[in-house]
Amino acid sequence: MTRRGPGNPRGVPRWIGLTPGIGLGRVLGIPVRLDLSWFAGLAVVVALSRELWAPAATGVAAVLWSGLFAVAFFGCVLAHELAHAVVARAVGVPTTEIRLFVFGGVARIAGEPADPGDEALVAMAGPLASVTMAGLLDLASWRLTGPPGDLLAWLFVGNLVVAGFNLLPGFPLDGGRVARALVWRLTGRRLLATRVTAAAGRALAAVLVLGGAGASLWQQTARWLPQVVLGLFLWQAATQGERSAVRQELLAGRAERG
Predict the structure, then answer these.
(1) Among the options 51, 81, 97, 112, which is catalytic?
(2) C-alpha atoms less than 13 angstroms from C-alpha of 177 in its C-beta half-sphere
(3) Which of 46, 88, 179, 226 places its Cα 20 to 30 Å from the Cα of 147?
(4) How high is the pLDDT of residue 44?
(5) Residue 30 Cα distances to 86, 96, 133, 241, angstroms
(6) Alpha carbon 54 to chain centroid distance?
(7) What tens digit of pLDDT does each residue of 71-99 get?
(8) Pairing verdict, β 2-3 and 22-27
(9) pTM
(10) Strands of the 2-3 sheet, one edge to the other
(11) How far is it, in rounded angstroms, from Cα 1 to Cα 6?
């Protein structure tokens, strides 16, 4: 997922970046930070993955393997965002920051690609990186046994999930940005393209919320509640991205008249 610069979240809820976060240094010259919400994401991943290591590892050992899995998984998310940043830099749009948060990561870019083709390239870079990492992890997992092999195998699955979810055609997901670029190319109207794909993003969000809530009630478990929260997050992101596009269009119109 990508995000535009200061004052324009480009589809990312405003609470992301309200706090300075924890600086991790620079990668390829780009500052990387942990949002405070990241620790909640870490706890959720650890809690949901403790049973993956049985029967080889249980109890404290399982928690440790889950912690290692969570950190490695977010490392893969960082690589996904770096791919966005590198391609954005190649098309002339610098990245001011990459931030990891509860639902993954965001590359904060300093502007919008001026061409729908560039928009599609930047959007596809992340999923392609995730698929590439998945393939390498799958190959490596066959060389190891026990929890280490399981760790690589589950990271393979995790990267496929990240790529697959991001490719769904709802703004502001990467697939939604590719769809936006296509509609933009066909109509010549970026605002219309944003409205169409933002509506698709909200429809996807509604499916996540209703599906997660229904599964939680049916199974009498809180295991599906993160899906509900993710759906609410996606709904807010799609709405804010659409509002941002409207503001940009108005500002561009005023600049042309001025």
Answers:
(1) 81
(2) 27
(3) 226
(4) 86
(5) 10, 7, 21, 23
(6) 29
(7) 999 999 999 999 999 999 999 988 888 99
(8) unpaired
(9) 0.87
(10) 2-3, 104-109, 95-101, 30-34, 22-27
(11) 16
